[in-house]
Design brief:
Helices cover 26% and strands 19% of the residues. The protein is α+β, with helices and mostly antiparallel strands. The structure holds iron/sulfur cluster (SF4).
Length: 62
């Protein structure tokens, strides 16, 4: 199963991942994206696109 992680040292809080994949990613009040459903990639089907579209490559899929 694909499990996403966000590297907060890289994330610039642009919101692109949340836009593309709101079931899995959410930009928090701290200005960084967080994974809100680590097991949701399969059902949501948008983690790969979010990872590809992240401008700073902060999203890893393992
Ligand atoms: S797309 Fe990348 S930089 Fe933008 S909020 Fe998501 S993880 Fe952060």
């Amino acid at each position: 199963m694909t499990r996403p992680t966000v590297d907060e040292d890289l994330c610039i809080g642009c919101g692109r991942c949340e836009e593309l994949c709101p079931a899995v990613f959410e930009v928090g009040d701290d200005g960084y994206s967080h994974v809100i459903d680590a097991e949701g990639c399969e059902a949501a089907g948008c983690c790969e696109e979010a990872a590809e579209e992240c401008p700073v490559d902060a999203i890893s899929l393992a």
